[in-house]
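Tutorial handout. Part one gives the primary structure; part two gives the three-dimensional structure as tokens.
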Amino acid sequence: MDLKRIKYFCKVIEHGSISEAARQLNMAQPPLSKRIQELEDELGASLLVRSSNGVEITAAGNYFYHRTCQILNQLEDAARETVKIAQRENAFLRIGLTHLFQSYFQPIILELYKRNPGTELRITVSDSSNLESFLHDGLIDVAFIQKPRADDAFHCCEFSPVPTVAIISKKIMPALPTAPIDISQLTALPLILLRRYEGTGIYERLIDLLSEHGKYPNIIMHITQPKAIIDCLESGLEAASLLPASEVEAYHLQQCHVVELTPSPKLFFPAIVKMSTTPEISELTEILNSRERHAGV
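Part two.
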């Protein structure tokens, strides 16, 4: 059944005459009369009684009018809801989040969601090196990662360095030191070090720092995730590691000490990175500008 004919019929009823309905629909009267006749022929029922004074609705026409009004309203509601769902589906932001700074960037991600509840956040958690590749390949819109090496293809928003702390098993250091320790003291300990999936980064800088006194560190494992390192140490592994302070919650640790270092090495540089050709992400820019304003107060 042609919906347009039904809508024309409803217009005639609502305006009381074919001529007025035709004027409202911006069409000539004869074509409108023909559409109504076609509807009646299709139904096999007379809907209107035509006279010199206009039209009168029949009992069948009255029933048909009220039922079709309900159906048309439901169709309009369905159309509106469909558009809303489509808009929600199209409103998303693809974020790459490094294992290295999951806790550090969590407040920004939560604020992003709170300010933009209609935007779906699609978050991929991976190694910084992988996320840099994902940016280049267009698989994510923005990456929350360790500051990459200089690359004209990237646009970076840099943050202050996150302090480095040593996390040491109580089995090899029973008592928590009363003062920061020199990083050289870690050289003799079994070490689990962070290492990128590929390329150079924190691991190589750590090796350089720990080797400055002429002794190569005792490295027993490489792991890409701070949490995985902490889990190993908390499970009883007799070792130590160097991690970003933002990812270590000392009060949750039972088997390890969290120890400050002197001098505190600058190793961990969080950054929000997008491709230089990617348009500004307004939702994120608003949050970063707000943080800058509050920091300046």
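Part three, for discussion. The mean pLDDT is 89. The domain at 91-159+270-296 is CATH 3.40.190.10 (D-Maltodextrin-Binding Protein; domain 2).
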